[in-house]
Amino acid sequence: MIKIPYTHYLSRLSHIRESLSRKKVDSFLVTDIHNVRYLTGFSGSSGFLFITKRKNIFITDFRYKEQSGREAQGWDIVVEKRDVIKTIERLSQKIGIKKLGFESSVSYNFFRRLLKGDLTLKAFKGLIERLRAVKDSIEINSLREAVRRAESAFLDIKPYIKQGISERALALRLEERLKKKGCRHIPFEVIVASGLNSAMPHARPTEKKLNNSDLVIIDWGGEADGYLSDMTRTLLIKGDNINKKREIYQLVVEANERAISLVSPGVKSQEIDQSARNVIKKAGYGEFFGHGTGHGVGLQVHESPHITWNKKEMIKENMVFTIEPGIYVPGLGGVRIEDMVVAKPDGSEVLTNLPKKTCDNTLGDC
User: How many Cα atoms sit within 13 Å of 179 on the Cβ side?
Assistant: First the structure.
């Protein structure tokens, strides 16, 4: 486990205070648990941050009193006994807070209750998420380890990917290996979709057994130090009438590689998406690629930036995101190939290492 220095969190916190100063609010309430972890290192499931110009206050309940004291160094721990809203109001009165900034992602009920108090409220959207989109070296190392664990688990179960095994059995075997590799939790439910099921981008594993000529999509991820990985490989079981399946496989590989080649700081996310989409559209399969080309990955498996046709986010150095074009043809099957990349000054670094050429992923003689 990578231990992040206390000074690292202080640096992140200073960026938040600078933003608050510009927005002219006295304090900021952080409620998203992923943002709480980003600013403190706290790995529990219940905690709020109350940040003022001079004070760092961590609000939690009795269950996490001991853990927050150990993990959230430099924060004053306040244990709320019944009601977090009343705790916030009490602290505001004690410190002299008049204007409270809060994350716009709070629930409507939470917001309604805040409104009943005497504070002037100001919602902030994506304040911390924008910081999280650009990873530092410690975060990138954790992401590398999350990728390594996921790929190692996949290689362990690859010999079992053959005719006769069920999608569900494969998914369970992969989840087991992920945990044995050190993943404390699985980022999302493993997807194993074979045959006609592979034409559904987010199919759930079923009792269907793999058959000859099946395309098999496997989408999974690992975890390290709270950071996640997300990758997809498609395999083809040798059999009859697979030429069309090889064709769409090669198109997806080309789209994947074209998009990766465009990744660089200063490029807009929409341009990366378009580069992959154009390959597939030109070949006549545009209607069969309906999702975005990628998304950021970090403390959450889906975060900024968004690599899609309707977003023009500027790619910055050390942003980490997926490149995952796909083609899904009802009645035939689907292909998706997903890699994780880091934007670097001279292009991109691909974090995922598993092969993706047709021959490497054909189960049987090529």
Answer: 9
